[in-house]
Amino acid sequence: MRLILLGPPGAGKGTQAKVLVDTYGIPQLSTGDILRSAIANKTPLGLAAKEVMDRGDLVSDEIVNGIVSERLDAPDCKAGFVLDGFPRTIPQAEALDKMLVEKGMHLNAVVEIKAEPEVLIARIINRARESAAATGQTRADDNEEVLRNRLNVYRDQTAPLVEYYRGKGLLKTVDGMAEVEEVTQAIRQAVEN
Ligand code: B4P
């Protein structure tokens, strides 16, 4: 099973990817998690990405494409994967198409998780509150001002991927505003049909 989860910030890509890992026994490839881990470890990649991510902008296609290409070569990706947060631009999608051909792989489905902006804002604010209460820390990009920029970036740079994948006959759309379990069921139904 080779899947892409597409959707605005807070739609539940990360939440659902973790469930799909257990359901299908495939790894989650989250570019957001990989970049945050590089920032935490203060690697050169992390130093380059931090300022961009803190503003809610996108890290360069070149950097992210390199990360994904390398990750797809790992043995655990042979049987499949769920891409969470990649691709996020048309050039990233085109680069992914090329990588998959070179690696002899193909996608089974691209799942768009849809949710309204008010719901997304409420979820992210809630995540920030819960994280602050539990650990005393929040993601630098989990505040309302940066989130509004992330939503604009999604509309301008990522939303065009919906038509890109519809054109390839791969697109499945699910309602991301339902309960987590219901969204999981909808995704399973969409990709298994
Ligand atoms: P990401 O890490 O991808 O994260 P995200 O946009 O916050 O979203 P996600 O949809 O995963 O939300 P989640 O499940 O956690 O990106 C962060 C940044 O990294 C980007 O802004 C960019 O700078 C950089 N980046 C990443 N990939 C890149 C790329 N390819 N190119 C360039 N830059 C890149 O859900 C959010 C909250 O909602 C959680 O608290 C969750 O519990 C809750 N929730 C989820 N589903 C719910 C439901 N059904 N009901 C109620 N609550 C729900």
UniProtKB/TrEMBL annotation:
Q: Which InterPro entries match?
A: Adenyl_kin_sub, Adenylat/UMP-CMP_kin, Adenylat_kinase_CS, P-loop_NTPase
Which residues are recorded as binding ATP? 10-15, 127, 178
What does the entry list as the binding residues for AMP?
A: 31, 36, 57-59, 85-88, 92, 139, 150
Tell me the keywords, alphabetical order.
ATP-binding, Cytoplasm, Kinase, Nucleotide biosynthesis, Nucleotide-binding, Transferase
> Which branch of life, at top level?
Bacteria
Q: Which GO terms describe its cellular component?
A: cytoplasm
Q: What class of enzyme is it?
A: transferase
Q: Does the keyword Ribosomal protein apply?
A: no
A Pfam family found in this protein is ADK
Give the UniProt subcellular location, in the record's own words. Answer: Cytoplasm
List the residue ranges of the region (NMP): 30-59
- Catalytic reaction annotation: AMP + ATP = 2 ADP
> Which coarse location class describes where this protein primarily resides?
cytoplasm
One of the protein's GO biological processes: AMP salvage
Pathway, per Swiss-Prot/TrEMBL? Answer: Purine metabolism; AMP biosynthesis via salvage pathway; AMP from ADP: step 1/1
Q: What is its EC number?
A: 2.7.4.3
Q: What does the record's free text say on domains? A: Consists of three domains, a large central CORE domain and two small peripheral domains, NMPbind and LID, which undergo movements during catalysis. The LID domain closes over the site of phosphoryl transfer upon ATP binding. Assembling and dissambling the active center during each catalytic cycle provides an effective means to prevent ATP hydrolysis.
**Function (record text):** Catalyzes the reversible transfer of the terminal phosphate group between ATP and AMP. Plays an important role in cellular energy homeostasis and in adenine nucleotide metabolism.
Entry-linked HAMAP family: Adenylate_kinase_Adk
Question: Subunit notes for this chain?
Answer: Monomer.
Question: So what family is this one in?
Answer: Belongs to the adenylate kinase family.
Name the record gives this protein: Adenylate kinase
Q: Which organism is it from?
A: Paradevosia shaoguanensis
Its encoding gene is what? adk
